Amino acid sequence: MSGVSTPLSSSSTLTGPLSEPSSPKAQKAAHNSYDTISPLTAPGTTVTGPVAYTIEALAAHHSGSVVVFDLAEQAGFGSHIAQWEESSNVKLVRAQTRAGAGLGLAGRLSEGTSADGARTTNGPITAFTTPEGLAQMIPALSALPSPSSSGRLVIQVAAITPTPTLELTPTLAPAARAIASLGSDFTVLISSTAQEAADFAAISYSLSSHVVHIFDHSGATRETGKSTFPEVVSAELPGVAPFDYTGNSDAGVVLVLLNGPLAALARLLASHTPGLGVISVRSPRPWNAEALRGVLPESVKKVHVVEEVPNGSGSGPLFGDVLTSGLSGVTVRGHRIPSKQSEAFHNSINAFAEFVAGITSLPSGLTEAAKYKSLSFLSTPASASLTHLPQVTTHTFLTQGGPIAARLLSTYDALGSSQGTVISRLVLTPSNDEHLSKAPVSGIASLERQVDCLTIVDPSLLASHNTFNLVKNGAPVLVLASGGAPEVASRLPRVAVEDIRARDIRVYTFDAENAAAEIGGSNSDPSLLQTALAHLVLLRIYLGAVATPGAVQTLASRIYGDVVAGVSNRIVCDTAWAGLAGVEIPTLEPLAEDATPPKKLAAFAFNALTLDDSAYDGRPTPVTPTLGSWAEAAKRLMFREAFTPAAPAPAEATHATNPALRPDLAEERFLVTCTVNKRLTPLTYDRNVFHLEFDTAGTGLKYAIGEALGVHGWNDEKEVLEFCEWYGVDPKSAITLPVPGQPSQTHTRTVFHALQQQVDLFGRPPKSFYGALAEHAKSRDDAMALRFIAAPEGSATFKKLSEGDTVTFADVLHQFPSARPPLGELAMLIGEIKPRHYSIASAQSAVGDRVDLLVVTVDWVTPSGTPRYGQCTRYLAGLTAGQKVTVSIKPSVMKLPPDDMQPIIMAGLGTGAAPFRAFIQHRALLVSQGKPVGPLVYYFGSRHRSQEYLYGEELEAYIADGIITHAGLAFSRDTKKKVYIQHKMREDSETLGKMLAGPDKGVFYLCGPTWPVPDVYEALIDSLVRFGGKSQEEAAQYLEDLKEEERYVLEVY
Q1: From the Swiss-Prot or TrEMBL record, what is one GO molecular function term (predicted)?
Q2: Whole-Å CA distances, 382 to 120, 611, 919
Q3: Which CATH architecture does the domain made up of 1-32+381-432+452-619 adopt?
Q4: What pLDDT is stored for residue 33 in this prediction?
Q5: SS3 869
Q6: Among 1.20.120, 1.20.990, 2.70.180, 1.10.1740, what is the CATH number of 633-764+806-830?
Q7: Stated pTM of the model
Q8: Topology adopted by domain 36-228
Q9: What is the pLDDT of residues 456-502, one digit of tens each?
Q10: Which of 300, 482, 960, 978 has the most beta carbons within 10 angstroms of its beta carbon?
């Protein structure tokens, strides 16, 4: 059985017409889907991030101060507002939840501190909390002064509550009793869907009363899906009625519920149940009995008030409100839902439908009528390379538009395993089904045999969790694992095998890591490529019978463009198609009577809002950059073990690494001393080629012939100070930055040192920088221009800026002055100065404790006349004797042949002569020791012998001594007809052909720019054909074989 030959789906899929995505970089768009939400987001903008961030943005923009209680932050609500504090002019206050917590709010409204006084005039005070926190502050809220234009309180309540079993639920039970005791100065709003939560949050800032807004933070406001950023208008309850009726106008039975997730499920049931109506109470305070009577159909005979209560005894306040509303000719009955039953209803619409059918005697037709699909993903922190697969898949459907509505909800189980589990559910519904497209994801995408397609991202879950119990009968399951189908089959526990066979579940596997390694190049991002491959495999399975190689490639082109993570679209699609395999499920032998019972597999639970904690899998908690005073550095000096533990030295290190040498870098580092900086070309010559020597004594630096030296260069001091003055930062102040590769570690240095030695301020910005910078632009024109450059439509502009004007990060900031991120965030957006690598121009065996470089200064003039300089060559050109430089060693393909008797043919252009100087020095050493060596042929090319014959005196001496057996020197500008090294090589065709094709196994090396490679290749082919006894085709294949044997080595740039 294989995935290629077996039909992938016998069931229908929910699909719509494909359209161009909003961005060709699907992964990046998915990763940053909510980064576009901020206090400056324009009303009416369609956003795809969690609505919780919209609520935070509204609070930041329309409040004078925001009080974030600890329970809210623990629930993941209020964590983003700190980054907007300065830009939105809102004061952020953090507070603890305890008895009388509301007294602080009352005090702020009544008096206000001197710091707060001016802030409250800018808007109301907003408090972020949870139902438990609201209950704690209710007694103190009676002391609030009456609302006024200069003093008003808005409480945004994230409805998420832990149960006795530590599972998280959106139950309204704790909040219902609390709001019942609120006075007439309060308006209470309850939202159940994502868009409704955004709209009600906006309405909170348009009312004249105190407001409590309760929203579903267990699901609705954490979903990834489309919503519209709302507008705050001045009106009383604009567009909102206290009660919302759903159902037929002639319904005989009506359910009344507070407008939470259960109300959304009830509305969905009513839309498929004749005779049933639902009234959702959206504003229970102040209670409006007349409005309730107005929405109740005249045909109604029975009203069932359904409300969640902390325990099974006693009625909630809603029943009393409805009962006293004067509903004549109607029987009103109350139904209490205790916490355990409430939890079951929130997690399964089928369970809730049975309950509703039981109390109303009206069976639901939802199961037969509802059309939706549920795709789920199971992962752990260990599956980091495929972390964004759910978001990328969701983005595919979000950008389709048309008939499909897509919503993604991720829940976390921190207790089911040592590293925690992530359960991501993607629900696809018809966008024209008002109730189905807004129903709670956890209710309609139950984890009890309701999943249409399951992807297991971390195969270790097969052995520990009851993964297959999630899917419907006959559903496909994709396991992303290495080892192939037999390996996956061997991992299946007995319980899983029995379930798969009994319910005809189809299991497939794909090795994303190995597939990405096979087709990825040096410039490919392995994580992005693995995600793209897994994404296309999943779409193939989802599309089922309509999936063909051509259809998948067309889909990939529309999602990713012609290139997927640096690899051709066609290659990625072919790899994804060929790599999918079906898993043959083994036949089980009956268990012996005395056999150990099969291990019980764990179920999945929702008991955490994130796994981004060091408690899971030993992963560090990321830290954010901060700008501060010298005290930050002092703390790290006094408590260095806690703040700056030394990075471990590599296993192969021969000495202890000095932790002061760039502790943010993983590779082994050395501090060397510049002893010689000598210009090799005349001062009148337009190219500054210079020779450097560094003393390595006592550093432990060892290098092999042909290796490269990584130089950690600095930015120009004058330019850094000028930027600090323009940006308005004190270069002597301290900045704390996360250590790259060690996100829980930080290091503190002055702003000047960070910008000079670490932040690539004068490097070239990628396209993504423009998009990220747009979020900080205060000018609408700047924001629009930056977003245009970052978009596909701005490719021509980006190319002109990058390749024509060669703008730097600093230039872009100057060009768009209203975009000024905080310096710490700017440093993270820009990134690190990368070490520049230069071929070492010395053999340590010959020179001892010394390392030499051959460097040419890189400079040019832009079309506008602005001079530009290569960052590192400029730094190296300015070195003086005695100056310290941080360096590292990088291996290279330029290695000496294993046999000293093998002929060596070297071709170097300009500074490409550097590694060959090392080769020659080593051969000269061997000769001086009386050891036999093979012939050494050297080709060198530059423009003028008198000006750019690099190391000419040394070379002439080596030629005279016979170290260099033959030299082909090509100075292209010294003769009327330009002569290049390939011409010299053709003159020596016989020598080259016999050396390369003969028994001595000669080795050819080329170092320098890429442009002569084709001509050099043809010269070698010609020598092999004329004097190596080969045909044209045989010669070409022979050179390919030499590459594999490392006898035809190119290092070009």
Answers
A1: FMN binding
A2: 46, 11, 45
A3: 3-Layer(aba) Sandwich (3.40)
A4: 44
A5: strand
A6: 1.20.990
A7: 0.60
A8: Rossmann fold (3.40.50)
A9: 999 989 988 899 999 999 999 999 998 888 889 988 999 999 999 99
A10: 300
